[in-house]
Structures are given as structure tokens and as C-alpha cells.
Amino acid sequence: MAYSDSERDGFRLSQLIYDSRYRAITIQAVTLALVVAGIFWLIMNARNNLAALGLTPSLDFLSNPAGYDIAFYLIPYDSQMSHGRAAFVGILNTLLVASLGCVTATIVGVLVGVLRLSNNWVVSRLMAVYVEGFRNVPLVLWILLFFAVLSESTPAPRAFKPDENGVSQASMYLSDSFAFTNRGVYTPAPVWSDGSGWLVAVFILSIIGAIYYRRYARKLLFDTGRLLPMAWPALLILVVPALLAYFVLGRPVTLDYPTLGGFNFKGGLNIPNSLLALWLALTVYTGAFIAEIVRAGVLSVSNGQTEAAFALGLRPNRTMSLVVLPQAMRVIIPPLISQFLNLTKNSSLAIAVSYPDVRATLGGITLNQTGRALECMLLLGLFYLILSLAISLVMNIVNNRMKLRER
Amino acid sequence: MKKTVFFGALTVAGLAAGVASASTLDDVKARGKLNCGVTTGLAGFAAPDANGNWDGFDVAVCRAVAAAIFGDGNAVEFTPTTGETRFTALASGEIDMLARNTTWTFSRDTDLKFDFVGVNYYDGQGFIVPKALGVSSAKELDGATVCIQTGTTTELNLADFFRSNNISYEPVPIQTNAEGQQQYLAGACDAYTTDASGLAATRATFEAPADHVLLPEIISKEPLGPLVRHGDNDWGDLVMWTMNALIAAEEYGVTSANVKELAAAPTNNPEVNRLLGTEGELGAMIGLSKDWAVNAIAVSGNYGEIFEKNIGESTPIGLARGLNAQWTNGGLLYSPPFR
Asked: CA–CA separation, B78 vs B91, rounded Å?
């Protein structure tokens, strides 16, 4: 049966379609070509249309003076600085609210998630109501609601001014340190004077000391089985040297109290209501999702683990923190990453309450004043992309460390 | 082979559809109605009434243009735009013209590639404060919290004013006039700043307008006018001359009441005759019918009538003509001749 394979040796074009050896590659190549052509068409289309409107994409506007003021900034800023600086102010504001939100949402989420599994009927039902209530209503409504509550239920700064009888309608709290107004919360701000550097150094050393104490205690536990108290000695190491140094150095850090002057409170630290409302709303909204993730994680740990821990005589609190949660973490962390990403991206809803985040500065006012919509939106997209990837990276490192160590 | 041709044709069709078409007037005529961008709601200038019909000073310009093209002032689709969305809406072709108290500036005219066709209201930026605040000048606002519509020239003027007077303030950016009004009345800001006409319009809707005062300082020039995309000069001319027709009509005493009568037969004023199409062929020069201006004037009257009906002293907004009087009365309104 020597009929020749030889005539088939030559490659013919039709084999690309009819020969199963090549067909898959053909299909992939065609698909890739179509996708590339599609992307190319989109870019060319955008370019042609911009050219038809006489606009050429350029990032030069970033170095021009912004000309507008921003209500809340973490680095020095005034209207004569560039659009790029204004964008950076917005980026820092976004990072601030996102990091605050991630921390508090995690705390709320873990607490609620664990409490929802409580044997106490009232507690577990209350937590269920919280979770279902908050995660089933759009976030922007919560932001607006918190903002409305904060600004409608608090007095205007004018109300703190005594009238002709010397009586004011509103008063500050904690011996005139805190003022809650419809514009924001005014708190005392620390003033760092000479010698405060030493204080900070002492405090950092105490933190290192506390960490070493915990390591030592753990090693002792593993080596000899002796359990040293963990919490209060660590706290003492943290606080006592810093307190001593504070008085020895002659109180280098003082507090600047807010006082009523002119139209507003002056001095102190001003936390605008927009930041508080956004932070609260992001916390309780994302916290509800995290609670469900934590609950799922805890339930994923076999009940036998809990029973075994009880049998060894561990109390319920220790069982949860030493046996169940560490194992649950492996289930919790991957979905937790997406919640952090959601929270970060959701912080762009800041526009609803005029919190000057990057969406409001670069993607709002700068976009408007310069008319560079495409450039601003691409930069904004790039920023959120980089931020999200960075969060994913960090959380994946954490996840790898939490993974079950297989030996 | 057939498939290749098909895909090729599809690509060409897609590319062709992507590029803005050449003549706005042809597009508008084919569509049968004018797409006009207005504010999201500012009493007297552009706001929907109880029946959902848009009404106001800026709306009247849109209706006049629609009437000049179609002979029907209702052939308009109104698109509410915010300070932030208005330019994108116009540049993208979503709307054919924007009549939304927009300030004519150098960079908007050149860098943003728009053409302002004229000024229908000469304005300036002012401040409103509660009377109880006891402030009589904007220079006393050191340290005040000021509500401001974001994405507007007022934002930049405000920064400049406070910087040049060496006083500080805290800006509260807001999206719409309604939001600004609410924040201001709630006391979240000490002062609200926008164009003085807008402040008067806003104050008119307050429960107790007398409790609020407009400060005397006008800190900027705000020539407000309709604008179109740059590049279609024929369309720009059409909108410009429709507006000029309204201004000229007031100057020559042509009103919504007597326009039909005057247009019936040539009068002894040749300028009026050319305007109303009883003499010459001005309409054809901008691609419209002979009676284009008659229709534009008939729909809501001449400039003076529109002003008085919507924002004049007999309305709650109560604006005086001031700079917006005819040049013959010491104002700045001056239509080039119809000839």
C-alpha cells in the first residue's frame, strides 16, 4: 500500500482551511488580524474625527497654570500652579479616601462577617439586616444620604457666634476642641516644634521594641510552651517611652485649636463633610460585601477544626483568631482584592458631594477649562489602571504568604 | 471574493459615518428639527414649564432659529447640558447650537474650536449673600466659603479676584444651579457666585428674596451668547443673522404683533423691507426662504419683547436693560445692517 504520501508533501494553500493540522492556526490568525484591524480602525477613526474638528491630541496643557482653586489639598496648592499639580492634588485626595476606606471597610467587614455567624439571634439578625440593607442600595445614594445628614443636622459656623445676649446657638465639644458644622468637622491639629524629631524617633524605636517583644514571646511559646501576656506589655513599650520623652523634651508637640474667626473656624484641622460622607459611605457599603466574604471564608473552614480546638480547651475567641480565621484567610483574600479595587474605583463618585478627587480635578475642572476631554479621560483611566494593578500586586503578595505551606 | 468586497464596503461605510458631515443646515433640514443645547434649568433663561415646554430668554433664540429654518418655532429638540457637558455635546454634534449663557472667551473661540455668533446678554460675575451676614462688599469676604458652578469661567474669575485682592476663600464646587441654590440656602456656603443675571434669576425663586443681597462688585466681563461648531461658516452665519434679525427688529419697531402686517407689503423703510423679505433676496443668501426673519420674529417677538417677557423688570427676575439696551438708548446692542 505504497500510494504516495509524496504528492502531499507539497504545501497547498487550501490546506489552511481543509487540513485540520493547519485550520486552528488559520482561524486564530484571522481572528487576531480582525481584532488588530478593529483596534486600528477605532484609533484611526478617533484621529480622523479629531483632525476634522481641528484638534490635535497633546499633553502640553498639563504644564499651564490651572487658574482654579481646590477646597481640600494635602500638598501646597494655589490657583497659579499647573494643571499637572492640580491633578496630583486630586490623586492624593483619591488615595487618601481610598486607603481610609479600605482600612475601615475591612474592619467593619470582618466584625460584621464574624458577628453574623454569632449564636446570638438578635446580633446575627441585625448584621444580616445591615448587610442586605447596605449592599442592595446604590452607593451614590448612601454618599448623598450621609452628606445630607452631615450637613443638614449640624449647625452653620455662624451659629457658634454668641449673639447680643452672649448666647450662641451651638457649642463646641470637649472644652472647645471639636466643632461639628455643616461644612466639616474642625479638630485640633498638632504643631511640631523643636525637639519633635526626637519624639518621633523615640516612638519609632518603641514600635520596633514592641515587635521584638512579640517575637520573643512567640519564640518562648513555641520553645517552652510558656505563654507570656502579649497585649498590655506591647502597649506599655509603645506608649511609656514616648510619654516620658514628651515631658523630658518639654512638650515639643502642641495642639492648635480651631477658633471662630470671620466666616469660618480658623486654625486646627478641617475635615470637610464631603470627605467624611464619602469615607463613611464607602466603608459601610464595601463593608457589607466584605462581611459576606468573611462569612463565606469562615464557613469554608470545616466544623471539625472548631470542635478540635474546643476539645483542646481553646476559648471561642482564641479558636476564631488562632484556628479559624487564619485558615479562612485563604478563601477571603482573593475576593477581598476585588472589593478593594471596587472601593478605589467607587471613590470617583466623590463628584456627587464635591470632594476634589482626581476625577473632579483632572477629569472635571481641568477637562472643562482646557477642553482636552480625550487626553484627560485617557490619563484618568491610566491612573486608575495603575492604582488597581498596584493594589492587586500588593494583595497577591499577601495572598501568597497566607497560602497553605506545602512541604 | 464577494466577502472581501463586502467587508471592504463595510469599512468604507464605517469610516464615512465616523466623520462629521459637512453641512449642518442640510443635516438639520433632513432631520426636520433643530437640536439646541440649553441649561438644565435656570428660571427666565431656560427652564421647562409645568407642561414640560421649554421657555426662557435662551430658549427664544433656539426657537427663532428653528422658525427661520422651518417656519415653526416648535421644531426644536432641547438638550439640557451642564457646565461640564455643554462643549462636548456641541463638539460631538449631539447639538447643532448651544444657547446656554456661555461666556465668549478667546480660548473657547480658538482652542476649543467653536464660533460665538454674537452676544445676547452682556453680563458680569457677581455675589449673593444673606443679608444677615452683614457684608456690603465682596472685598469683605475674606475667609468665606463660596459656592461656585464648576466648569465655568466664573471659577477662574473667582480665583483671580480673591488672589488680586489678597484675601482667601474656600471654594465649594457644585454641578448645577439647583444644587448651588440648595447648598447656599442650607448655609453650606456664605456666598454664591455666578453671572449677576443668573443670581437675580436664582434669587427670584427663593422663598424670601428680600433676605438676600447682591453685592455691588461685578468682577468680570461675561458676554453671553449662542455658539456653534467651528468650521461650518454657513451655519454660523445663519444663527448669527437670526439673532441680528431679532435685535434689528427691535431697533426698527418690528414686533410679533405687527410683523405679519409689515411683511405683507413693502413699507417705506427699505431696511425693514430687506429684513422681512419684501425687497431683495437676503433669505436665499443663507439658504433659507424669503420670509425667514418674519418667522423668526413672529415666534416670540423681537429682542426687546423676549427680554421683557422672560427676564425684564416686570418679571420676578427683574433685570434692567442696562448694557443690553439698543445702541440708540445707550446700550451695547448693535446689529450690522441688513443689506
From this structure: 16
DSSP code, position A364 = I
- Maximal C-alpha separation, chain B: 82
Report the gap between the CA of A59 and the closest CA in chain B (Å). Answer: 14
Could you tell me the end-to-end alpha-carbon distance of chain B, in angstroms, rounded to an integer? 60
- A71 contacts B14? CB cut-off 8 A: no
Q: If you average pLDDT over each of A30-34, A171-175, A181-185, B9-13, which comes out highest?
A: A30-34
pLDDT tens sequence across A255-305 = 888 877 777 787 778 888 889 999 999 999 999 999 999 999 999 999 899
pLDDT, residue B17, reads 44
User: What is the edge-to-edge ordering of all strands in the sheet holding B212-214?
Assistant: B169-174, B144-149, B191-195, B125-130, B212-214
Domains observed in chain B: 23-122+224-329 (3.40.190.10), 125-220 (3.40.190.10)
Q: Which site among A69, A161, A183, A349 would you substitute to test the B interface, given the most B Cβ atoms closer than 10 Å to its Cβ?
A: A69
**Nearest-5° Cα angle at A217, A215 to A221:** 115
Which residues of B fall within a CB distance of 8 Å from A55? 113
For B42, phi and psi rounded to 5 degrees?
-140, 115
C-alpha cell read off for B238: 445663519
Are A48 and B19 within 8 A, CB to CB?
A: yes
Indicate the pLDDT class of residue B154, thresholds 50, 70 and 90. Answer: confident
Burial A48-63 (b: 16+ CB within 10 A, else e): ebeeebebeeeeebbe
Tens of pLDDT along A29-47? 999 999 999 999 998 988 8
Residue A399 has pLDDT above 70, yes or no: yes
CA distance B193 to B147: 6
Q: Is A398 helix (H, G, I), strand (E, B) or coil?
A: helix
Within 10 Å of residue A136's Cβ, how many Cβ atoms?
Answer: 8
**β-bridge pairing B76-81 and B34-39:** parallel
Question: Residue A192's beta-bridge partner residues?
Answer: A253
Contact of B323 with B331, CB cutoff 8 Å: yes
Whether residue A48 and residue B111 make contact (CB cut-off 8 A), yes or no, is: no
Positions of E strands within A199-302: 253-256, 259-261, 264-266, 269-272
Q: For residues B46 and A280, what is the distance between their CA atoms, to the nearest angstrom?
A: 37
Contact A354 B88 (CB under 8 A): no
- Asked if A45 reaches chain B (Cβ–Cβ under 8 Å), the answer is yes
- More confident: B237 or A187: B237
pLDDT band at B15 (very low <50, low <70, confident <90, very high): very low
Note the pLDDT of residue B38: 94
d(C-alpha B122, C-alpha B124), whole Å: 7
* pLDDT tens-digit series, residues B189-200: 889 998 888 888
Residues of A in contact with B134 (CB under 8 A): none
Contact across the interface for B175 and A55, Cβ inside 8 Å? no
Location of C-alpha cell 426662557: B56
